[in-house]
Design goal:
alpha/beta; seven-stranded mixed sheet; globular; binds flavin-adenine dinucleotide; binds FE2/S2 (inorganic) cluster
């Protein structure tokens, strides 16, 4: 983990409430896709955790959905503005476990960490299937970016306005040869994917309301088959076998 100042380079609006942000700074603490950053915003006591969508040696790419005051302030940051960022948090995805036919399943803003993952898989010579789900075509984003990586791209919308009508689980069912999943999205989606019988394994990215974001406050613990784990430090990625769902 590293605390440092990042500079806002630019923000691009992708949908009504979703933005792509590019920040420059020291990314040396980032070791794996699926890790996150925790951003201090002026006037906010708690930092805001945001997944790393992609990174280079000196730049950070984030996708942010505006849900409250903190994310609204974040996407309104102007070029040149400096942000206090804790980088390289969490465990990240383990690419070595992906098998021959990995599928990346993302819902809504949960597609963010899957982009950097897909890019690194393609760079490593693995060709993932990417299945993305949205409520409607107006909320869809980053399809061209995923397609440009050379992945097999499948899309579902709940209202059928883009791709097939349905959910990412329906997309996965159409590619039964894909038996190992990397998953990020809302909890009902994670649960539904976890129930897919075709999966022999998988890695699931969890969200939790966070305090410190680096393992010190125990504010983000969830039960697992191996005891309680901190989503911020032991996660946010949990393996299929260790997940215990809470009602
Ligand atoms: C590991 C991790 C990775 C994340 N990655 C991204 C990302 O890549 N892009 C992105 O846009 N968002 C991401 N989030 C969610 C993001 O942290 C919250 O949306 C943000 O903190 C809300 O701050 P706010 O001040 O705008 O909203 P607040 O005013 O704090 O809350 C507004 C609404 O957002 C909900 N909310 C707040 N925090 C969370 C949270 N941690 N998880 C789910 N819902 C929350 C609240 O319940 C409330 O309904 C991630 C969260 C975690 C834990
Ligand atoms: S947020 Fe403090 S331990 Fe996870």
């Amino acid at each position: 983990m590293k605390q440092s100042l990042f500079t806002m380079e630019h923000a691009r609006q992708l949908t009504e409430d979703t933005y792509e942000l590019v920040l420059s700074g020291d990314t040396s603490a980032i070791t794996a896709p699926g890790q996150f950053v925790n951003i201090q915003l002026p006037g906010k006591f708690l930092r805001r955790p945001i997944s790393i969508c992609n990174w280079t040696d000196s730049a950070l790419l984030l996708l942010v959905r505006v849900v409250g005051e903190g994310t609204k302030d974040l996407v309104r940051s102007v070029p040149g503005e400096e942000l206090d960022v804790l980088s390289g948090l969490g465990n990240g995805f383990d690419l070595s476990l992906s098998g021959e036919h990995p599928i990346l399943l993302g819902g809504g803003i949960g597609i963010a960490p899957l982009y950097g993952l897909a890019k690194r898989m393609v760079d490593a010579g693995v060709s993932p299937t990417v299945a993305l789900g949205f409520r409607t075509w107006k909320e869809a984003f980053y399809l061209e970016e995923f397609a440009a990586l050379g992945c097999r791209l499948l899309v579902a919308t709940e209202d059928g306005s883009l791709g097939i009508r349905g959910f990412v689980t329906d997309l996965a069912a159409n590619v039964p040869e894909c038996d190992y999943a990397f998953v990020c999205g809302p909890t009902p989606m994670l649960k539904a994917v976890h129930n897919l019988s075709q999966l022999t394994g998988g890695q699931f990215s969890f969200e939790a309301r966070m305090g410190c974001g680096f393992g010190a406050c125990m504010g983000c613990t969830v039960p697992t088959r191996d005891g309680y784990k901190r989503v911020c430090k032991d996660g946010p990625i949990l393996c299929k076998e260790e997940i215990v769902w809470q009602d």
